[in-house]
Each structure stands twice: as C-alpha cells, then as structure tokens.
Amino acid sequence: MSLLILGPVIFFLAILLITGFYYEKKTKNHPNFTEEYFVANRTLGGVVLAMTLVATYGSVSSFISGPGLAWNLGYGWVVFAAPQIITGFLLLGVVGKKLAYISRTINAITIIDVIDKRFNSKFLSISLALIMLIFFITMIIGQFIGGAQIFSAITKLDYSYGLLLFAVVTVLYTSGGFKAVVITDAICAVLMLTGMIALFYIIIYKAGGLENIALKLDAIELNEQGISKFFDVNANGALPFGLLFSAWILVGFGTIGLPQSLVRAITYKNTQSLHQAMIIATIICGALMIGMTLIGVLSRAIIDELPQGGTDSVIPNLIANHMHPLLAGITIIGPLAATMSTVSSLLIAATSAIVKDLSVKIKPNMDFSTNRHKLLIKFITITIGIISIILALYPQDIVVWINMFAFGGLECAFLWPIILGLYWSKMNKHGAILGVLCAFICYISLSLFKINIFNMHAIVLALCVGLLCSIIGSYIGGKNTHEVMQHFFPHKI
User: What is the pTM of this model?
Assistant: First the structure.
C-alpha cells in the first residue's frame, strides 16, 4: 500500500527536480543574473503569474487546518474562508500596476528596495528585512512540519523520512531561482486542484450523493430553533460576527501587505498579463479556498467522530482510510504541492532579504554578477533550507504558534508602508517607522496576552493603530525629498 501511495509522489517530486535543474541552468548563464534569479527578469505571463500567486497563498493550512475546522463548524467556516477569493484580484488591482512601474523606474528587485527608495531610512529597511527573514524562516519550518505530518499519517512512514524527501527536493529546485519557483508553483497549483477534485469525488461516492450528505448534516447539533449547527452562519455561537468580520481583514484586505505575494507584482511583463492574472487568480483561488473548505463540511457525512489527532487529522483520515492507495497517492500530492509551493516562495524571498536587503545595506558596492557571488546566492538559499529542515526534524509547539501569527505580523509590518507609500504623498519615513512599530507592538501584545475586543482578531485593532500612527508620524515629520516625489508622485512636483 505504501508503494502504491509513494509512486505518484515520487513521480511528482522528480518532475519538480527536473524543472528546477532546467531553469537553474538557464538562470546561471543569464547576463543579468540577479534580476533573473529574484524576479525572473520581469517576464511572467498572466497564467503563470496567477498560478504562482495562488500557489504561494495556498499553504498546507488550506488543505488541512481549514477543512478540519469546517468539519467541526459547518458552512459558517465557508463564510469565514470567502474573503480569500479576492486576494489575487485585490493585490494586483490595488498595487500591481504602480508597484511594477516604480520598480522598473528605480530598478528595484525586492519590496524592501521599493520601501528603501520611498522612505530613505536605513533603520526601517533593515528592520523590515529582519522581520521578513525571521517570520519567513518560521513559516517555512511550520510548512515543513505540517507537510511531513500529513505524509507520515497517510503513508504510515516515519515523519523524518517524509520531511527529508519532499523538503530536500523543495530546497534543491528553489535554488534554481525565481523562474524555477514560479513554474513549479504553476505545476503545484494544477495538482492542488486535482487533489481537491479527487476528494470531492470520494466524499460524494462514499456518502451516496449530495442529498444523503445534506440529510446527515441537517441533523447535527440542533439549536433551540431546530437548526443544525452546520447551517447556522455563526455555527451556534462558535463563530462570532466579530471574528467573521476579522476574516475580511486578515485573509482579505490585509493580504496586500504580504511581501512574498507583493514581489509577484513586479515580475509580470505587461499590463495585459496583469489583467489576465487578476481574472485567473480570482477563479482558481476561489475554487481552491472555497472548494477545500466545502470538502471539510461535506466530509462530516462520512467521518462521524473526531479523529484522534483532532481536526487537523480529518483530511489525512479521509485520504488514508477512504481511498484506494493509488488514488490516495495522487490526492496527497495536493497538500504536498501546497506546502512546497509556499515554502519555495518564502525561501526565495528569505534569500533576497539576506542578499539584497541586508548585505547591500552593509556593503553597498557588492557585485552579484561574479561567479563567486552567484554561488553565494545559491549557497544562502540552500543554507536557509537546511536550517529549516533541521529545526523541523524536532518540531516544537512554539514554532507552530509563531507560524500562526506570522501571517498577521507581516501584514502589520508591510501593509501601510506599501499602500500609503505608493498613494499618499505626505507619507514619510517618520510615519512609516511609527506606523510599523505601533502596529507591530499592538499586534504582538494582543496576541501574547490574548486580549479579545468584540471577538475580533488582533490584526484589526493593530492595523487601525498602525494607520493612525502612520498619519500622525507623517504630519510630525518633514517633507519628502525632491527625488522621492519625482519617482513616486511626479504629477505633484
């Protein structure tokens, strides 16, 4: 059985390795190595851009934790997941065009490059680069842990074997550069959809059709009005409306501030590609995020009792116990693809944080076109990956906890410097520094002390505080330089 499950997985990993090595060879000999390695020389078409956005955003949680919670909470959790549909459209629509234009004008390769040019603050740039690096590595470790646990639960093989198998492959193909990452992301996005379709099929088949599923769900945990918890928008009180509102910030509007997604906005080749990606990303992201959450709800019809490992075990239980081993092997590729695509994006972004955002600040005249520095860039990518793999071999609860709020922490750090920096001419480095510090401190404090205001997630208040402090700081500080105005607001000079 393990061999039947492993067969499709090994084939999938081999394809990713071959793809990575192919683009690694092309990147190695490119005349503009740094730009090719980190942003694929800004040549992405609409389909690839959309797929890499979706694959970067869809993580192991999208396949495991989200559906597991939906198994417990019903259709209310589908409402909670709904804001994720607009993430690609929102990101590309709000900042995609201006960010791409400015990055080309100032020759920016990373998001920190743009922020550094906009605010001219070494302190802010280094602080944001360190925040990126710490949270990215933590999220990589969390993804590795989640992916390895799924692999172990389904194949019945040792946790460390699964981790080493797919984590090493991910690190190796990522070292081929951004083009290797986005092409493998596109492959992963297709396979994520394939896994989702296979899960839908097995649930409907095993449950005897949608009508039988609806009848079973309608009888689960009835409230005083005789309505099933599964058909109540707030799951009989388990999902407060404040928390549902928070979702539109945390996994909706706030995702504009995720640097691993923002960098995609400076890699497309033309406006037509941007518009095409906005449409495709919305369709694919909606299908995946809502589809996987619906799978969690519908799976309650065939998994009556909570598995021993909790809600995170629902989907692995479904794959391992209700599928033919060969189909299970094909389906497990979905969550593994989600894990690997997220890790590869974080890994290449973490490398850029060290190479472009920290090293250049320390030694501005570094020439990355030499063979020695090309090898150094790849060495850094592989080293970060190895460190993450080693830490994931010994999973700690604190790592998982940090991984959960890293998403919000990155939004607190980057959302207002990007949005206000691009569209508000009065925003200056004082406003950016004060806004980031206050939002970050507020978010961490609310999370650490578990302070709950109107049942809302900590990200809501933190971003409000960050916005207010950004405005106050900007009015306290001085005017922007002529160079900043010339690059970012030429019409106001």
Answer: 0.92
